[in-house]
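Illustration: fructose-bisphosphatase.
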Amino acid sequence: MQSFVLGLLNPIPTSGLPSFAFRFLPPNGKFSSGVSLHSRMNWSSPALRTSPMMTSSGFGGPLTLMEFACKGNADVGDDLSVLISHLQYACKRIAALVASPFNSELTKTMPSAGAASSSSSRDAPKPLDIVANEIILSSLRSSGKAAVMASEEDDAPIWISDDGPLVVVTDPLDGSRNIDASIPTGTIFGIYNRLQELDHLPKDEKAQLNALQSGEKLVASGYVLYSSATILCISFGSGTHAFTLDHLTGEFVLTHPHIQIPRRGQIYSVNDARYFDWPEGLRQYIDTIRQGKGQFPKKYSARYICSLVADFHRTLIYGGLAMNPRDHLRLVYEANPLSFLVENAGGRGSDGKTRILSIQPVELHQRLPLFLGSLEDMQELESYDSVQQKINPGYEV
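Result:
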């Protein structure tokens, strides 16, 4: 049996930090024709061909994100496909940056005192957040399809182009304060159609109003999880699908088509250390499900990463709830896009009383409690009178 070793090929510049595609080499160490592992795999084998994780692209391999957007989903038009192409490129660059051995130096250097930020002091943006923000803005400018970008890292939306038909809202690097501990982070984004009826207004005003659309008007939303794998999860309004970055080909390939969150889970995700600050209704709910005395007669377990994208991703796959009961998470950049995703997977997003997507934003950086999860778990949670934490003794929001 012939043996092979891994070699590095094709460095791809990503904001000054190289990433590499791996190719198999013969044991003599000389480059052959450069056949990648992806192309050497037998995609025609019955096991792979019948796997629900794989969908043929017509070339014997798994469907890529762009093949899915361009050919596999009738809801995606040309403008949106182009925009998604540029967004996925930006997220590949961010993934390389997050995984770089140099990022620890970036995260330790705080921005200058005069740096503008809409975040609280606890969430003050680090340079890595700012770099991710600039990468996304640059990609949206290059796409020619974005009229507005509204970001958690900017005080106000940026008007990009009079010709752009789409509006993008984003949290460029959620959970960045966890990077030094190698805890997963993520990018969250939502996409709207530009409101052409506002075109007569001054740029600042129409940029603001375009970014303040309700979640019900989203045409697409997604997140990218930077973890042991880089996963891009997206919905165009008819199902939720996850694509995993294949580092051999540099493509996001379909690995989780038509995600359906279980109607019930057995996991809840929340900061239990704040238990004594919670309102009575939330304490009663958590006590009840932990003891297996709720509507679902099994004892629930707690799983909490303190990284919104990671906690949400696990909840989407396994079911249950991910929550923050205090007025902390942003409606525009976090709650709306993630609620759109979970609803298209059969779940629900709520502030504890009201469906998230029905809430009309009134401020760009508006905060609110957020509960996301399985439909029956969410219905049981909302049956309790008081689950929103209105006071925050001993710590800042």
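Reading the tokens back as a structure: DSSP finds eleven helices and 15 strands in the chain.
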